Amino acid sequence: MDELIPLSNATLGQVAVRVPRYDRVGLRPGIVHIGLGNFHRAHQAWYLHRLFDEGLNHDWAIVGAGVRPGDGAQRDRLLAQDCLTTLIELDPSGKSAEITGAMIDFLPVEAGNGPLIRQMADPSIRIVSLTVTESGYFTDPATGDFDATHDDIQHDATNPDHPRTAFGAMIAALRLRRDAGLGPFTCLSCDNLQGNGAVLRQAVLSLAHLSDSALADWIDAECSFPNSMVDCIVPATGPAEIALAHGFGIKDAAPVTHENFRQWVIEDAFCAGRPDWHKVGAIFSDSVHDFEMMKIRILNGGHQVIAASGELLGLGTIAQTMAHPGIRALLRKTVTEEIAPHVASVPGCSAQEYLNLVERRFSNPEIADTTRRVAYDGSSRHPGFIVPSIRAGLKADTPVRGLALVSAIWARYCTGIREDGSEIAPNDPHWDLLVPAANAAKIAPKAWLEMRHFYGELVDNKGFSADFSAWMTLIQSDGVEAAIEAYTSS
């Protein structure tokens, strides 16, 4: 292989893939984004990059930020390559790559978040966006209420000028802007949460009220929190992904792989202006809820239907689970009979058509999306993606046996032992809580449903509880595959 080209502004003319058509020196910041993981760089940053390529909106560049100590390592990687990213599209018909450059800086990651607060207080910043994971909004999984008891929230309430959380930093910056007469910014969640804008509003306002109710009222009146639906399958980066960048002759310490599909639907509610994202494929709509329900219930819910099963059976990737006839049948039957009936169509796509699309996307053999990554944080994802479909089915008196089986398989997963006896390493922020409950459920299945902070009142529903208990008993005696076969053949 020829010598690899280190990714940087100076070497863009040497790489043999698509590179930015705009002069990055002329870009000016307009967005601070908190949470510089792979998804943001493959999704929101890509839309902005393509907009810049059209010669538009060059005053909306991204300044990256993080609030966790570990974010410093990502900062070092990206600054060393001038905040450029190699995006590698994994299409079954062939791989392609491009270099994106919408991000122009990454703020120092410091205790108290001083650099982040100062940057967000700058009047050039008109949007603060976030990808901080589903569990990062301090909400109770069962009720959706704000958790004001969390240690980090209590710290930020009593130390508002030196916050630990992204929300505390946003509030501190908004205080500076209000006091200086600089006006608000839009707060834009890009996480996989139903009503993510409303969830972000709740987090910011609830925390602000703990220390400064007058500021909270100002934020409520002046800032906007648009809901958005985001969609693109983006695996984690490891040695294989870095090697893929090498295959294009590029030395990139943080390349991103992604599928050949992305979608972004956003409410047009921006208090301080916005880029023209619609000119490069984003959809501005008053019906974000319908799009997000379809995606969260079928795609994100579908991921939870298959991921734990795949992990328990030693299947490493989502594509491998889709090649397993039983798991594929479990996905189709559960979604078709128990999820899709409660999902409205969106323009140009019915729930069943969306399932067909999801099956194709999940089956892409080029996407090395691991079952472990998808199964991570089930304590947020099951309450967010599976439990709402259970409640919808119970309310409509339609079947929920498959969803009860999915819940039982998750419980079996949380015992921490695969079917071959190998150990599952901790894979949830609440792993220490889940494992004892899962082991108790081997003998008394309802012990799992008694976790009301995840399942709410479902343990009191005799029908669902009976279905769940029956599946737990069958899984214990005959295994996961036998339980799947019993359901899909019925």
From TrEMBL:
GO molecular function, one term: oxidoreductase activity, acting on the CH-OH group of donors, NAD or NADP as acceptor
Any coiled-coil regions, as ranges: none
Domain Mannitol dehydrogenase C-terminal: 288-469
Mannitol dehydrogenase N-terminal domain mapped to chain residues: 30-279
Alphabetized InterPro entries for the sequence: 6-PGluconate_DH-like_C_sf, 6PGD_dom2, Mannitol_DH, Mannitol_DH/Oxidoreductase, Mannitol_DH_C, Mannitol_DH_N, NAD(P)-bd_dom_sf
UniProt source species: Pseudorhodobacter turbinis
Keywords: Oxidoreductase, Plasmid
Keyword check for Oxidoreductase: yes
A Pfam family reported for this protein in Swiss-Prot or TrEMBL: Mannitol_dh
Taxonomic lineage from the root: Bacteria, Pseudomonadati, Pseudomonadota, Alphaproteobacteria, Rhodobacterales
Protein name (database record): Mannitol dehydrogenase family protein
